[in-house]
TrEMBL record:
One Pfam entry name: Mito_carr
Annotated organism of origin: Carlito syrichta (Philippine tarsier)
Protein name: Mitochondrial uncoupling protein 2
InterPro entries named in the record: MCP, MCP_dom_sf, MCP_transmembrane, Mito_Metabolite_Transporter
A cellular component annotation (GO) from this entry: mitochondrial inner membrane
Chief location: mitochondrion
Length: 309
């Protein structure tokens, strides 16, 4: 089987922390255009009333959105906000994924048999902690992905300019805009993503359906991506709309959700579902497979360095 074999020594917290951040950055590099397409579809119709029809829509579907962006703004537009996205993943994924096992062990007091409740609690905790660390990078990433070069010019010229402009025009709180819905979203995403991956992988291994290798990691990650998309899409759309909104457009995340419901109907909460699934599904597969391999590679490197000649 291709890939690194599991070592007898379990990976340390530092290895998990570094491995999670690196794997998430690799996954982001590969799937970022899908994430940008998702953001564009989610904010579409934000300033349109219910009187507008689909005929006035600028983007239609995942492929249509990507092709329209390439045609009107150039291929580089698909990677708007990539720098902030990578900054986000190094700080965000390192905490929410890298510390998950350690926090789970804390809640189970070192027991090898973790209940679903303990897993959910661990996922919620690391998801919330990650938002507290990485929220400004998420705001800048969403703003960059949402801005269209063809409509009214660019709001920000660079990542540094975005941080400075938001802080200057909206105050320090502007960089933490949408923290509440983002905490809610990432608590949900983390629980759905990590706990589902954890449970599917444990079930496959205990039933001897697969060994702890690439096919098992791929299957578990794909299932986690689908479950996460179904559960987290409504909160994700509200988070994106609220983060990207102009100053004073919405008084709160709740007001944003109510406005969406009134003007666009319940289906608005699942705008961009297909790119969300394509992105989360592919992101989960790339991230978890890379993460598992990085953990093994790093532990193998550490073990070989410590081994006597």
């Amino acid at each position: 089987m291709v890939g690194f074999k599991a070592t007898d020594v379990p990976p340390t917290a530092a290895v998990k922390f570094l491995g999670a951040g690196t794997a998430a950055c690799i996954a982001d590099l590969i799937t970022f255009p899908l994430d940008t397409a998702k953001v564009r579809l989610q904010i579409q119709g934000e300033r349109q009333g219910s009187v507008h029809t689909m005929a006035s829509a600028q983007y239609r579907g995942v492929l249509g959105t990507i092709l329209t962006m390439v045609r009107t703004e150039g291929p580089r537009s698909l990677y708007n906000g990539l720098v902030a996205g990578l900054q986000r993943q190094m700080s965000f994924a390192s905490v929410r994924i890298g510390l998950y096992d350690s926090v789970k062990q804390f809640y189970t007091k070192g027991s090898e048999h973790a209940s679903i409740g303990s897993r959910l609690l661990a996922g919620s905790t690391t998801g919330a902690l990650a938002v507290a660390v990485a929220q400004p990078t998420d705001v800048v990433k969403v703003r960059f992905q949402a801005q269209a070069r063809a409509v009214g010019g660019r709001r920000y010229q660079s990542t540094v300019d975005a941080y400075k402009t938001i802080a200057r025009e909206e105050g320090f709180r502007g960089l933490w805009k949408g923290t509440s819905p983002n905490i809610a979203r990432n608590a949900i995403v983390n629980c759905a993503e990590l706990v589902t991956y954890d449970l599917i992988k444990d079930t496959l291994l205990k039933a001897n359906l697969m060994t702890d290798d690439l096919p098992c990691h791929f299957t578990s990650a794909f299932g986690a991506g689908f479950c996460t998309t179904v559960i987290a899409s409504p909160v994700d759309v509200v988070k994106t709309r609220y983060m990207n909104s102009a100053l004073g457009q919405y008084s709160s995340a709740g007001h944003c959700a109510i406005t969406m419901l009134q003007k666009e109907g319940p289906q608005a909460f699942y705008k961009g579902f297909m790119p969300s699934f394509l992105r989360l599904g592919s992101w989960n597969v790339v991230m978890f497979v890379t993460y598992e391999q990085l953990k093994r590679a790093l532990m193998a490197a550490c073990t070989s360095q410590e081994a006597p000649f």
